[in-house]
Write a structure and sequence with these properties.
By secondary structure, this protein is mostly helical. The protein contains 21 helices and no strands. It has one domain. Helices cover 71% and strands 0% of the residues. The N and C termini lie far apart (57 Å). It catalyses: oxaloacetate + 2 Na(+)(in) + H(+) = pyruvate + 2 Na(+)(out) + CO2.
Length: 376
Amino acid sequence: MEALQTLWESTALYAFTIGQAVMMLVGALLLFLAIKKKFEPLLLLPIGFGCILANIPMAGFNDPGGLLYYIYEVGISTGVFPLLIFMGVGAMTDFGPLLANPRTLLLGAAAQFGIFATLFGAVLLNYVPGFDFTLQQASAIAIIGGADGPTAIFLTSILAPELLGPIAVAAYSYMALVPIIQPPIMKALTTKEERAIKMEQLRPVARREKIIFPLAALFLTLLFLPTATPLVGMFCLGNLMREAGVVDRLSKTAQNELINIVTIFLGLAVGSKLSAHEFLALETLGILVLGAVAFSIGTAAGVLMAKLLARFSSTPINPLIGAAGVSAVPMAARVVNKVGLEANPQNFLLMHAMGPNVAGVLGSAVAAGVLLALVG
């Protein structure tokens, strides 16, 4: 009987808690959204599986010496994984639409308004019983509004690593829900006539411009906001490798093999932070709500800024393209194109929306740098 008792106590069933069971169901839900609904599958799948692994009793994945422990310590606590992801994203980004219409940089900047509005919202939430966010935690929550997963993880790992799990899940979940969240906001703030506006064809952008731009962006960041240099610098490196035309092997590696490997480890590392004792808290609900608010405000601010630009522009501007400034590349631009086609079947806005879309990537990195400089 003693042997049977020892055997029973060594099983996971003996040590299971209700919280762990709930979190394993959360992991299963993330897998369902990734596989069945195809919501950000490249990240939700490893995050969901990492969540399940992290909540298996006595498996030791998260303990010192465990696989997930080392993945997190090497890649997340050091900030390496988000920076490598940014380099890969830079290598996949074409700044041509932004350079052809530089005004769209303002749309990417306007969409970051959701970040700073939510910062105040997180602070005000402390007046509700049960919530007690520090300024560092509030800043980490606010970055969800940028709809940029790597930036959210990078900033959170520095300012509030204890909130990494819920913030990362919120950031990537709302990125995946762009086709559901954005259209109602876009339609509520525009008329059908505005959504049907056709924009003029973009001018061709010379190769020299594309090479100079990442160098200029890095120089300006170094000069005015050095705290954003890690993110912007790696992004510009990836983009320069793409546009230089002399390191195609490096560029393709950054776009494919490297970013794919890092994405697997990044997802597992984030999933490792979805253990029951860290995730099942009232603060998690507040983070999810604030993340939705941040994303919605960012979308609305981009659309409103585009409407303002249209009033003073000599060429037509469709206000829908402002919604792409939230940085979820390229999904937000595709949603803009889809909503535009619904209003006018001859209205192709994809390339026009890519301008504010890539501007939003830079904008979220700059916003993260500002928050680091203020509260880091």
